[in-house]
Amino acid sequence: MIKNKKLVIVGLGETAEIAYEYFTYDSPYEVSAFSVNREYIIQNEHFGLPVVAFEEIETYFDPSQFEVYVAVSYVQLNRVRKNLFLATKKKGFTCANYISSKAFVWRNVKMGENNFIFENNIIQHKVELGNNIILWSGNHIGHQTKIKDHVYISSHCVISGFCEIGEASFIGVNSTFNDNVMIAEDTIVGSASLVNKSYKEKGHVLIGTPAKTIHKNSYDTFNVIEDDLG
């Protein structure tokens, strides 16, 4: 594959290592460096590439020449990834998408930036993906479903047609959504749950078949600090 684009990966953890592997061997991007906040720099190189302070990333890499991928998981209900994505955009960078060559993405799917779509995802007719979404392996996203910004979808989830997944939500492994179901922002859906009706209030934790709310909210479950609730 011809490497005609340059990329900086924000992150040094497991998600960043996976991003490096996939971008390197299955994309037109050549990874040039890694970047994290200065307080988290514990090494000067990673995979033989420089590690630079995120606070100064634009002084090392011209935003007109380099794109960025923010490689962070669902820490604090996706808040860490969200905040780094927004900070990256504020610095003037375009954020790269990774779409596996082994994923099926229909021609009229719309998507924003900083999305990572693993192998064996099926994304159907007129699906809309926002920004900063992770779709782990083997999901089905049904026709005309909308997935909002900063969502994390684990493996082997079935989201049927005309659904809406609210911003910064977390969808557990093997979850299933019936047609025309909506969940609000900051919702957690537990593994193997069946969501068969809409939940329009944010912050729910849904568990079971059919899924029901529990007393603990999603902010306590994922240790979201108060400053990040805006």
Structure report:
There is one protein chain. The protein is of the alpha/beta class. The protein has two domains: 5-90, Rossmann fold; 98-223, UDP N-Acetylglucosamine Acyltransferase, domain 1. The chain is 16% helix and 28% strand. It contains four helices and 24 strands. The strands form four sheets. It has an eight-stranded mixed beta sheet with strand order 6-9-12-15-18-21-23-24, with helices on one face. Strands 7-10-13-16-19-22 form a six-stranded parallel beta sheet, with no helix packed on it. A five-stranded mixed beta sheet has the order 3-4-2-1-5. The protein starts with a strand and ends in a 9-residue tail after the last helix. The mean pLDDT is 97.
Number of strands: 24
Number of domains: 2
Can you identify the CATH class of the largest domain? Mainly Beta
Tally of separate helices: 4
**Average residue-wise pLDDT:** 97
Strand content: 25-35%
Radius of gyration: 18 Å
Distance between the termini: 42 Å
Order of helices and strands: EHEEEHEHEEEEEEEEEEEEEEEEEEEH
Q: What's the main sheet like?
A: 8 strands, mixed
- Provide the structure class: alpha/beta
The parts where pLDDT drops under 50 for at least 5 residues are none
Strand order of the largest sheet: 6-9-12-15-18-21-23-24
| CATH fold category name of the largest domain | UDP N-Acetylglucosamine Acyltransferase, domain 1
